[in-house]
Amino acid sequence: MTARLLIVGPQGSGKGTQGVIVASAFGVPQVATGDIFRANVAGGTELGKRVQAIIEAGDLVPDELTSELVRDRLAQSDAAEGFLLDGYPRNLGQVADLDAFLDGRGESLDAVIELEVPRDESIARISRRAIEQGRTDDTEEVIANRLSIYERETAPILDGYRARGLVLAVDGVGTLDEVTERIFAGLATRGLRPRRSGAA
Length: 200
Ligand code: AMP
What we know:
By secondary structure, the protein is α/β, with parallel strands linked by helices.
C-alpha cells in the first residue's frame, strides 16, 4: 500500500508537527520544503544564498526552483512507496508540476490532509513559535505577508484536490494528540493505515 500524502494548512496550523508524526507512522519520508530551504540558508549553500532574501521577506521561492528541489527529493529511493509533503505545493503552478512528475511515474496522490485552524489561532501560535525558536521570518510583518500568500495562493489549491475527492478536512484546534487522532481516523476511512504498530 502506498501513502502519498500532502498536508496543507496555514502557518501555525501545526502541520509541521503533525506531518512528522504521520510520516513516521506510515514509514515514509516527511519532505518539508521550508525546512530544506532553511537548512540550505543555514549551511550557506548556493541554493541557500539564492533563496535567503525571499524567505526572510516571507515571499514564495520561484516555482521552477522549488519544484526541481521536490522532484529530486521524491526521486530518491526512500520515497518510492510514499512521502508526506509539507509546504508544497503552495500554488496552482506547483500543483501542475507535482501532477506532471507523478503522472510521469505512473503514480498519484492518496490523500490531502487539510488542517483547519482559524486565523487568530494561527497568528497566536506563530507568535509563540517566534519567541521559542527565533525564526527570522516570524516577525509580525512577515507573518502577515505569509498568511495573506496562504489565503490568496495556497488555499485555492484545495478546490482542485477537493474536486478529485482527495481532501480530508481535519479540525486543527485541540491538543496535539486529539488532532493526530483525527488525522489517523480520517486516513483510515480511505483505507490508509499506519504500518508501524503503536503509531496511532
Ligand atoms: P514554511 O516553513 O513552509 O513556512 O516555509 C518557509 C519559507 O520557505 C516560505 O515562507 C517560503 O519563502 C519558502 N517556501 C517553502 N515552501 C515553499 C514552496 N512550496 N514554494 C515557494 N516557497 C516556499
